[in-house]
Every structure is written in C-alpha cells, then in structure tokens.
Design goal:
- The protein has 237 residues and is of the alpha/beta class.
- It has a single domain (3-236), classed as TIM Barrel (Alpha-Beta Barrel).
- It is 48% helix and 16% strand.
- It has an eight-stranded parallel beta barrel, surrounded by six helices.
- Strand 7, helix 9 and strand 8 (209-212) form a beta-alpha-beta unit.
- The longest helix has 23 residues, at 214-236.
- It starts with a strand and ends with a helix.
- The structure holds pyridoxine-5'-phosphate.
- Pyridoxine-5'-phosphate binds next to strand 8 and helix 10.
Length: 237
C-alpha cells in the first residue's frame, strides 16, 4: 500500500504571514498523523521563509511515524541534519527567488560533493533520497551515489496542459519508477499532486510513497472554514 507523507510547510507559511505563533506546523503534524499519515515532510530553506529551526527540532520530538527533512546539500544543512537526525533527508535544489522547488536536483553536476553528502548522512543512519526529474541519467547517477531513494518530480505531469501530455508524462514517470526500482532504489514521488491527478500516480506499483503538501493544506483550509466561522459566531453572540 502506498504511503502518504504530508508536507506541513504551508502551515508555517500561513504563520509567517503574521510572524506569530499560529497556526503551528507541529499541531498540523500531530493531526495529520492521527488521520493516518505515514510520515511528515518539511523543508528547512536557507532563508527560513516558512519552517524554522525550532519547527524541525520539535517535529523530531513529536513525529511518531517518519520525519522526512527536505534540504539543499549545503554545509549548514548537513550540520542541521546531523544534529536533528530526521529519519530521511531528501536533497532538493534551492533557489531563493523560487516560489517552490521548481525542478529536480541535477545530480550529474557536483557528483563528488553529493557522494560525500550521501555517505555522511548514511553513516548517521539517515535514509537518503534525491528529488530528481524523471530522467534516466539522473536515476543512474543517484544509484551510483549509493543513495537509498529517488523522489520523482511530478510537476510536469501535474502541469500538463492536455490529455496527450498527461499520458506522456504519466508514462515517463511509470517507466522511470520501474528503472529506478530495477536499480535497487526505493521510489517516491511528489510535487503538484492533488485530488484530481493523484490516482493514476498511486497506481504505479513501484512508487512506495507520495509526498503531498499544497493540495492537502488547501483542502484543509476550505473544509475547515464552516466550523471555524460557526465557532467564532458562537463566541461573539
Ligand atoms: N516533494 C518535494 C521534494 C517538494 O519539494 C515538495 C514541495 O515542497 C513536495 C514534494 C510537495 O509538493 P506539493 O506542495 O506541490 O504537494
């Protein structure tokens, strides 16, 4: 059965809109786990625009399932990962101007550095995953690095404009999931998956885990509004 990792970055984004204390991504993680999530995902960015160091530390203490920390392969983040010890690190590319992670990491450039990063994390018992485009040269490079998992970037599939493109991108993800699995890598996928497009991806049997943030938090906000408004009216009237 495919596992669900819930990304709680957006809860921290709403908190940072007021630079206050609520909503707390830790509370969201606890509720996500109570609802059956198999893991919690957060991305500690260099600019700390949403998840803060405090969040990562507390998530490590509170998450009972599986904590997956997304990060760039920098010295600062390596120190952080080794001090916090998440269950898994997913290495992602990071650009300051981007709204979200826009593409997979290019593993073929910077190979030696990434090899060192992989072996250091693995030596600390952290499972290592690379967020890459569904591309055979990237998958081969991840296998050569000695990493444990690839996370296939589903952004092109999610943004496909017409049915032909949807089918093409789906087939690409399916064949790359098979290739990665044959090379002995675990396979997960994510980015832009929502209540409309996730089912076909979830049917790919080599994909063990889906990491989803935006669509779940978006739905949570909307389905929670009615009760939130009723609660406020009950207080003031
Ligand atoms: N996986 C990775 C590596 C990501 O960077 C993100 C976005 O933070 C996701 C999954 C989740 O993407 P989305 O928020 O579009 O569901």
């Amino acid at each position: 059965m495919v596992r669900l990792g819930v990304n709680v970055d957006h809860i921290a984004t709403i908190r940072e809109a007021r630079r206050g204390r609520e909503p707390d991504p830790i509370a969201a993680a606890v509720l996500a786990e109570l609802a059956g999530a198999d893991g919690i995902v957060c991305h500690l960015r260099e600019d700390r625009r949403h998840i803060k160091d405090r969040d990562l530390t507390l998530l490590r203490q509170v998450v009972k399932t599986h904590l997956n920390m997304e990060m760039a392969a920098t010295e600062e983040m390596m120190k952080k990962a080794i001090s916090v010890l998440p269950d898994m690190v997913t290495l992602v590319p990071e650009r300051r101007q981007e709204l979200t992670t826009e593409g997979g990491l290019d593993v073929t450039t910077n190979f030696d550095h990434l090899e060192e990063v992989t072996s250091t994390l693995r030596a600390n018992n952290i499972v290592v995953s690379f967020f890459i485009d569904p591309d055979i040269s990237q998958i081969k490079a991840v296998a050569k690095l000695g990493a444990d998992y690839v996370e296939l970037h589903t952004g092109n599939y999610a943004n496909a404009q017409d049915l032909n493109q949807v089918v093409e991108e789906l087939e690409r993800i399916r064949s790359m999931a098979m290739a990665a699995s044959k090379m002995g890598l675990g396979v997960s996928a994510g980015h832009g998956l929502n209540y409309q497009n996730v089912v076909d991806i979830a049917k790919i049997k080599q994909i063990e885990e889906l990491n989803i943030g935006h669509s779940i938090i978006s739905k949570a906000v909307l389905i929670g509004i009615e009760k939130a408004v009723r609660d406020m009216i009950a207080l003031i009237r």
